[in-house]
Specification:
By secondary structure, the protein is α/β, with parallel strands linked by helices. The chain has 12 helices and 9 strands. The longest helix has 30 residues, at about 1-30.
């Protein structure tokens, strides 16, 4: 009898907490309804969809998770059910070097014409998804609307790509593409660093390619301002970033296998210039990982 009497208040307390949590979520939805980042419609993802299951952040789970599935899990608080299905993963068949997603969904990975004619300085480039629809809306919301809360889900998406695409021991150092100081002050943050910052707390607990990596936020610096690459042709993009970067700490780069991280790979002019500078400064090899890849 005493056991039942002592357990009753605990069960009642649990019921109150659960009910209170549901009421709080309902009140938030009523007062601050969620709007889809892409289409702007109001939607209700439900309380179970609001948080990424952090207890499952392990390379065994992320490395086997389908990119479309993980995108849906991560983006349920930000995109409606219709728009979230507009995500296109950067899956094979693609270019073995630059990661270009081939329009034909048949065949094996192979070199694209651009990489055959003009090989890149980096070994390989891979991305989370195609820069279109849902992915474009999310990246624009982060960069231009200051929705920095999107950095964490994008970080987890990138970590999934890293674990599934790279072998253990092939990456020593992670270097985000830097902004010019004036642009950094105007925006208030560097989106390339924002999407790798959560890794700092995770790397110690992960195995595989993420094991032993360090993040060098100031590994590169922009030494002159550049125009936004959007709207520029290929040659203009190359000229725009030529000579725009330098290594800040050569002793930390020398002999390292470096992973460059950026938000979008369009023509690859920016990351290829970064790779050239890093190799010239003594890096053993350079790879590239971006949130999205333009077709």
């Amino acid at each position: 009898m005493k056991l039942h009497a002592s357990a009753a208040p605990k069960r009642l307390e649990a019921v109150f907490k659960q009910t209170g949590s549901r009421l709080t979520d309902a009140l938030k939805d009523a007062v601050f309804p969620l709007r889809c980042l892409q289409c702007g419609s109001i939607f209700h993802p439900g309380p179970a969809d609001r948080n990424f299951p952090k207890d499952k952040i392990a390379d065994g789970w992320l490395g086997t998770c389908d990119l479309s599935d993980i995108f849906r899990i991560l983006m349920r608080p930000y995109l409606c059910s219709t728009c979230i299905n507009g995500f296109i993963p950067a899956d094979s068949p693609l270019c073995r070097q630059c990661g270009l997603i081939f329009a034909s969904r048949k065949g094996e990975d192979r070199l694209c014409e651009a990489c055959i004619r003009s090989p890149k300085y980096f070994r390989v480039a891979r991305a989370g998804g195609v820069y279109d629809q849902a992915m474009m809306a999310v990246i624009h919301a982060l960069k231009y609307k200051g929705k920095v809360q999107l950095a964490y889900p994008l970080s987890m998406l990138l970590l999934c790509v890293l674990i599934s695409r790279w072998r253990s021991g092939t990456i020593d150092l992670v270097v985000p593409v830097p902004l010019f100081p004036k642009r950094f002050r105007r925006r208030g943050f560097n989106q390339a660093y924002m999407v790798v910052r959560p890794w700092r707390a995770l790397l110690a607990g992960l195995n595989g390619p993420a094991s032993g990596m360090t993040i060098h936020v100031n590994g590169l610096k922009r030494i002159r301002p550049t125009r936004a690459q959007t709207g520029l042709g290929r040659q203009a993009r190359l000229s725009n970033v030529s000579g725009a970067f330098e290594i800040s700490s050569p002793e930390q780069i020398k002999g390292k296998q470096v992973l460059i991280v950026d938000d979008v790979y369009t023509t690859g002019a920016t990351v290829n210039e970064c790779a050239r500078v890093l190799l010239k400064g003594g890096a053993a090899a350079v790879d590239v990982l971006t949130v999205a890849r333009a077709m």
